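Pipeline run #58 for the internal structure catalog. This entry was flagged by the ingest filter as a single-chain record with no existing model, so it goes straight to prediction. Upstream metadata was stripped on purpose; only the residue string is passed forward. Reviewer on rotation: M.T. Logging verbosity set to normal.
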Amino acid sequence: MLKKSLLAAVAFVALAGSAMAQDAKVLRIGLDGSENEADQIRNTQCVADGLKAATGAAEVQIFPSPDYNGVIQGLLGGTIDIASMGASSYAAIALQDPNAVDPILTYTGSDGSSGYYSIMVARKDSGIKTLADLKGKKLGFADPDSTSGYLVPNVSLPKEIGAPVKEYFSETGFGGGHENLVLAVLDGKFDAGTTFGSGVGNWEEGYSAGNLHQMVAKGNLDMDDIVEVWRSPLIPNGPLMVSNKLDGDMKGKVEAFFKELPKKDLACFQAYTQGKNTDYIEVDPSFYQTIVDARKSVIGG
């Protein structure tokens, strides 16, 4: 799995690099593979079109990666300029090069909060309702660089189950992104899996935002088929990150575009942020320090 992920990351960075123009006015948006690629591209196209008009960029390119690490490496190497990812992905970058990117904005949910939850789900017909029911069973994670799909569960679960994750469950593995993970749970490949959601709103809609909400909206999930087994403490919403390799004028135009996006095109903003979200708010590295510390403790980088 690790070798496959590294090869995918190298291929992705090479692809982005091959498209890298000498003209600094070409902007490149990275997509992390947490959702079906075609859906991610479709939900981002309005952002690309708007950015081109607002910044005067000669071109805005969209680069979908097969996994989170591809975008992380692209941001570190300067072949990706903009990406919206979870806090653990930002932490991975900050731990390797604190000057590579700036986290500039995050979104607020339908309730005005700037956080979400790691949500563990199981098939409803499995009879699994609690963490105790999962002892000795298979647990799936979304991606090793996912905040809600890996980092936070590995920090929070041991405190609740009274044992290391790898000792409590018979097996753990990765689903290849949040959408694929939930589909793997439905297919019986895992007894339960960790994904993410706002935790507010209607259950039948997959809450108001997050992966479950997106899957319901696309017709890929009926919430009657699953149950929520566990919910994490509140996680800070992931940042919109901008590469510090962009010149100051272009970086300012990019930030101004995203700040205005919820007011000028709410539908585009909600598609890009995966739910019924309301606005962007300014953030800085201090907003994610607890996640950086947690990643350093659990993963090491």
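catalog note: Confidence is low (pLDDT under 50) at residues 1-11, 17-24.
catalog note: Residues 37-55 form the longest helix (19 residues).
status: ready for reviewer M.T.
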